[in-house]
Amino acid sequence: MALGSRPSLPSGNKTGSGTPFQPPGGSRPRRGQRKVAGRLALLVLVLLAMAVGSLSGLLLVYSVHLPQIDDLEHYRPSTTTELYDVKGRVFGSFALERRVVVGYDDLSPLLRQAVISIEDKNFESHWGVNTFRVAGAVYHDLTSGARAQGASTLTMQLARNLFLSNERTFGRKLQEAFLSIQIERTFTKQQIFTLYANQIYLGHGTYGFEAGAEYYFSKHAKDLTLPQAAMLAGLPKGPSAYSPILNPDKALRRRNLVINAMLEDGRITAEQAAAARAEPLGLMVATDPNAVAPYFVEEVRRELEKKLGAEQVHTAGLRVYTTLDLDLQRAAKSAVLDGLAAYERRHGWKGHLLNAVAGGVGLAEFRHPDWILPPQPGDYVHAMVTGVLPYQVTAKVGERQVVLLEEDWAWTGQKAADDFLKPGDIVYVHLAAPAAGQDETELRGTLEQDSGVQGALMAIDNSSGGVLAMIGGRDFNLSQFNRATQAERQTGSSFKPYVYTAAVEEGATPEERILDAPASFGSYTPHNFEGNYLGSITLLKAFADSRNIPAVKLAERVGMHKVIEVAHRFGITSNIPAFLPAALGAVEVTLKEQVAAYAVYPNDGLRIAPRLVKKVTDADGAILAEDRSEVAEATGVKTARTMMTFLREVTNSGTGSVAKALNHPLGGKTGTTSDFTDAWFLGFSPTVTCGTWVGYDGRESLGDKETGAKAALPIWMDFMKAAIAGKDAETFAVDERSAATRRSGSPR
Looking at the annotation, which residues are catalytic? Predict the structure, then answer.
């Protein structure tokens, strides 16, 4: 290029050509490109507006019907209604959800740490929602089409348990999040954890960690050890799947997973973790609180539901103060079961055992209804034979092994056990504690028999009518039918006091004589039980020895309508036929009515209706219901005291004279029905009236000579030993009046 010449411009860039000049380093955007960019920006804005609108719509849809979080400030969860005996001891409960509400400080720090480590590591720092985990779960749901996944914080779990259903959907997850944020804004972390800890389900009907600790370990939540706390903390994920009762292996693995999580979070040391993982589950499952008096508890439940409604009874955490005496209830249970065992032994070994293996059930799979409760020494339970040697039998009751030796079945008359027992047989045993030096996991037992015979007992306080003890049958787990209150059975001679009361009201006296000789009343010809006749005897002798013909003669004299009227005044509600055989007990009455009627005599003619409950309060102590004794005059004082002479002679020289061995002021009457189908004894001390009955539900014979004195009276005596203990100085009112008369020297 020559110096001074002008440089040439690039082709196409000449001025004046109509093409814009492009500076070095780039080109100007075309007009079409600008339009596309503008449209894209507009589309983005529209999409953002739609997203915001959709999100706002979702927020509105899923939050408009959410509950008010302020309601939590007044929240009271469903809690357990507890029953107290006369000494303030808890013996039973009702609950839809078995829960004991406690405060934050009543929860072991180990438990709090375990729950946070396994359920929500960031609980102390998040604002109710773990954003990253929730976003991941939502993305998974949207891309996979599967149901909503986990990622719930403790606060979200609380929101779901309190306010929402268990439906696993995207919408419910959003509601959880909204509620959780509100909860976190309203309550402290301690308050939130406490609500969670009292609400969470832990299996087997228990809710909350306090109830769980009491159920699984028989201790309070504040006293849990590290392995115990870890096991409970692992249950919320799957209360059934990780149940230490149903699935102990899975429960153990889950517990150790919790321990490892605590170690990773620095909550415990490696040494503590290793020691805790080495521990067994160590369950001490609590006994069913209703097991001591199940028939009584069921009667209370029916009564309260009629008065207060089922929902309040089962959810409101009521305090029910009953008339039951726990000590006497235990004595009653022992008396009935021991008495039935004695009856069974009198009639020898019958065999006819059911066999689980023959029924198609394996030894490992079989479960008996008796095994609901942990076996305890003193219990009568059904066991399954697992091994038989000539001189030793092993059986199982739940997870416990029972050992029987030759002396434990000697009463059967059998020598070698393998002659009459085989694996799979269901036997009835009376458990005893292990002998000294014996494996503590094993129980000793004596072989008993369960032929189906039943027994019932009821005792009341004479002065108040309060039911002190109630046994409605041999085994509540096998039959909930209450033979003390629901079974109407023929009374036999225990009906005779109403006949004699009618006669005394008409002027009869104990010294009056009557002819005990063959007699017919139209087509009806009664016979004495003994089959003999005593001739002219006093009414006192006739009553004490339970002679039938004198009783029928008295009924004819006063008229059966009069006898029926007396029985109804005494509280017998049965429809009594107005014919003479009813005088000998051809009428069906409940044990409950009989006991209340007999209490009229030591009460100087006043009938006090039996009652189970003294008062009911709410959880704060406000009285909701209060039962007072219902009192009515059944007969006059003079008649009642005259009848006391008759009834006391029965236990002094008559059919109940063995009761003299108790060396206490007593009275009562035996009762035996035709063919020995029912055996009764009704009797009283100055403070307690008790009745016992023995028989078969199918009304078959108890066997020859199984009278009220033989089958029922021994049970009554065993119970009354406990009822009169420490009451050596008590006397009947008639004795007190006689003593006062003697001291004053003025006969009345």
Answer: 119, 493
